[in-house]
Structure formats: structure tokens, C-alpha cells
Input
Amino acid sequence: MGTALNAITLGIALLPTIVIMALVLANARFKREPIKKVASVFGISALSTIAAVILEMLGSFVLTLFVVILSLDLGTNSGVTIKEFLEYMLVVGPVEEACKYFTFKWIIFHDRDFDNTYDGVIYGAASALGFATLENLMYVFVGNDSPLETAAMRGVLSIPLHAITGIVMGYWFGISKYRRYNNVQPETHPERKAFIFSVAIHGTYDFLVTLPAIYEDSQAVSTGALVVLIGVMIFIYVLMGKTIRRAKNETHNIYNRYYYEQLDGAMQDRIGGKTSEKRRFFGMPFPFYRQQGFNPYDPYAGMNLAPVPAAPNAAYVFGTQQPYNPYYAPAAPQPMQTAPTIPPVQQPQGYPYQNQYAPQQPVYQEARQQQPNNWNDEVQTVYGPPSALRGSPLPGFGNAGNNVVQPPKKYCGNCGAEQKPGAKYCRVCGNKLTDE
Output
């Protein structure tokens, strides 16, 4: 009987996490995030509860010294109320929300898979629910005489609280990354304001839950705290639904034209893993990243990504080339003058090897005729995720070492999916296609 009860309790404790995470994943419009990456964020955030326990103990010790300095009388309800309020607002709330914030910031913010603003909601929910799940299991199964009731109450109250803070921070992390990688108000950090909001809502919730225990003899205070707590939870549930819906409707690709033209996006995609919003991703040469025919000072050479193609077979001398400027168009070269055709040498009739040794058309003319003249043609620019680089001459994406520009392909400007010729709407996201 005990084993069955523990299994039921465990299921109730895990059910809110499963439901909220499934709701977040089901609202993703374009693609599924890598399960391993979502699981890694979930697991690392769960392990951060250990750091949270240590930091909360240190914070409580410092707060106790502060209370002694203020000479608060902890024998009265008012003194205990002030002490509990300060602890939740200055210790518990900041420590637990900081674990989620820095898990997101250090692990996933610059990851190449975080390529859509809605991905912030997914990874933010994973970070918050990882922390909340392990904390919930500790409260339910460690030193608890009524684990089933605790699991049910925390499933309705505590887990949604942690989830909303992670979802809100994740939403604004997505907005922040979009702005920084597209040069739109790059100096702003809206995720920091989301962190302050998360601390405030977390501290308020914990204080309201504790208040009835402080005023056990006051029915009015207990009832008032319960009413306010119900209002806070309604606000949390409504805010969760609106944030997910808003993130879904306003989803945008993060790695767009500015990323590829100004941040050496093609090179960052080649290397993979972490990315950077800095303008000069490689300001100095890194020989261990260089491959045959690849110039780190001109990463667009030979690719079908830059607005202006580099001259074929251009000589490269260290320190002599200027930094790449996508808005500078070199003058079109003058067409090569055709050398006069030399008539074949007339040989006597019956000569068995007639015209064998006659001068032929110069080789350079033949090569010139075979080379396509694209100097005056408009260059097709391709932007999008690494899948958009397939078939390009970039080493590692199919045609390594081939400097011939492939015919331009058509991609969706919203999700980056490759489209069929003549398509008017994206077959993946339904976005209307343009001829740009």
C-alpha cells in the first residue's frame, strides 16, 4: 500500500511539470527544439537548487545580523512579519530566480539552436521547471508527514509560480537576443526587468503563503492573505497563457541579414555551437580555423551569401586586404579584347595531317568563354539557418572547394525553409513569400 501511495504522490508531483512543458512545446510554430538541449537546461537548472540552498543559508545568516542591528523584536508578530518579508524579498526570491536567470544566460543564450524568439519561452520554461521539480520533490518526500496533500497543493500553487517566472524571463531573453543580433536597440536588456518582476512576484507569493502561520490567532489576516493569494494565482495563470500566446504570434527568426552581413554569420554557422552578437567576431587570424581556400578576413569569398561577390582566384597576402564592406561594389571589369583569329596554315593537298599543327584559339579565350559573366548580374543573397547553406561552396556544407556559384535558391524570410520555384506561400510556416 505504501509503494502505491508513493507512486501516486510522485505522479501528482510531476504532473504539473509535464502539463506546462507540453503546453509550451505544443505552441511552437516552426520547428522542434533538440530534446537533448532542452533536457540539459532542465537538468542543470535542477542541480542549481543545491547552490540555491547554500546561498539561502548564507543570505539568512547575513539577514539575521541585519535584524539584530535593527533591533527588531522577533517575539512580536510585527517583528516576525518584517523579518519574513525581508527574507523572501532579499534572499529567497533573488537567489532562486538568479539560478534560473544565469542557467539561461550561460547555457543557452548564445547557443546556435536558440534561433527563434519563441525558443526563449521553451528554454525559459525548461529552466524554471527543472528548478521547481527538484525543489517540489524535496518538499514532498523529505521530512513530510502528508506528502500527498503537499504534492497536490504545490502542484496548483508553487509549480505554476516557478513556471511563469521562467516563461516571462525566457520571452524577454528572446526579445533581447533578437535586438542584439539585429542591431535594434542593442544597449537595452529587457530580461533584467523581467528578472526584477520575477523576484517581486516570487517574494510576494512566499510571503502570502507564510502570513497565515504568523497570525494564527487572527482570522481576518488569514482570510485576507488567502484572498490575495487567490488573486495572485489567477494573475499568474492568465499571464502564463497570454505570454505563451503573445510569444507564439510574434515569433521571429533571430539570425537574419544583419547577422550574416555584419557579424560574420556564415563563419559562426560553420564553427557551430556558441555565437556572438559582436560586430567583429574574428578580429584576428585564427590559423586553426582556416581551411584550404578559406580566407578569415573575407569569409564571403566564393559564397552565395554576400551582396557583392569576391573576384575569383584573388591573390591573398597577409595584412594587405581591407576589412570586408558589404556596401562597397567594385567596378565591373572591362571585357577582355578578343585576339584576332589566325587562319590555319594551308598544307599541300593529300597531306595526311592537314591542320594538325595549325595555331589554335588561345587557351585564355576559351577559358573566358566558359566562365559565366556575373559581374553585371544582380546577386541573389541567401539568409537563414545552417540548412540554407546546403549546396553552397562553403566548406562543410556540401560543395567544399568548388568556387562556382550555384544557381540561387528561394528561401522563406520568416523560417528559412527552402521553397519550390514559383511558390507564393511558405510550405512550413505559411508566410507570404517575396521576391527579395
Residues 17 and 150 are 15 Å apart (CA to CA). Residues 282-294, 304-328, 350-405 have pLDDT under 50 and may be disordered. The beta strands are 410-411, 418-419. The first helix runs from residue 2 to 26.
